[in-house]
Amino acid sequence: MEDYPRTLGEMEARFSSEGACRDYLFGLRWPDGFRCPRCRHDQAWPVGRTLYQCRRCAYKASVTAGTIFEGTRKPLVAWFRAVWLVTSQKTGASALGIQRVLGLGSYKTAWVWLQKLRRAMVRPGRERLSGRVEVDESYLGGPEEGTRGRGTRKKALIAVAAEEDGKGIGRIRMRRIPSAAARELHAFVKDTVEPGSTIHTDGWNSYQGLEQEGYQHEVTPLKDGKGSAVLPRVHQAVSLLKRWLMGTHQGAVSHEHLDYYLDEFVFRFNRRTSRHRGKLFYRLLQNAVRAEPAPYSSLVRGVPGRGKQRHKG
Q1: Domains of the chain as residue ranges with CATH
Q2: Which helix (H) or strand (E) holds 239?
Q3: For the whole model, what pTM was predicted?
Q4: Tell me, what's the pLDDT at 306?
């Protein structure tokens, strides 16, 4: 049974202590009871306030070890409040907003927390899209001189898939891709859409051959270059993405971290009809105890100015 707070008041009353937060994470990580991470034995006894020692192999396990919370020096109470802030607002939260509301000592801490949480927004083994699915590519970034068509030097190119749900949009998937070549687009389709589904695209030749990959392929050539008329669901999703990036993050998202912002947008979009924002709180914490740890060095690898206090997206 899904168990989560419905309101901010419920969340703060329920998770006001470290023990309450650990107990909740325990239930999410081991819903059927304790399982030793090393030998899978189901019996353990508590050691102190934070560890469980396996009765078979004597391994000492923690509910936070092996999760995005591993090694944190901050209280879990603060983490839970951050998760609530991120999931309870339809437009999400910026690192600066998290820092101000939680009173964190540095922008860097808030930035790292958000990056860790974004890495938990993709559920391992999530179902692929199915049915009729629109697929297209789009650029993120301002006007760029000297490029035409699907070529780009500075802008980020993303692939987008959107289920057709009557006249509306079902679930979506998004991914940054290095080019609009067939290799990249076919890999995106195979990773995100169930074989046997109908893939609806424009006439870009890189989509040719999807039938050989196990899909039905419907092509609608562009008229007057207006992709929004041919693939309206994809274009609506991209429009909302751009509005969100500019509104919540002022467009300050580096290419190196873009995939994680796309994951956050998809996480929110696919749960936009949830009656209670608390369910998103539950889902994110559920994913967080299954996600791999993300040390700071891995978050800033390859990013210019990695040693500075402030980071772009």
Answers
A1: 1-31+64-120+257-313 (no CATH), 132-239 (3.30.420.10)
A2: helix 232-249
A3: 0.85
A4: 40
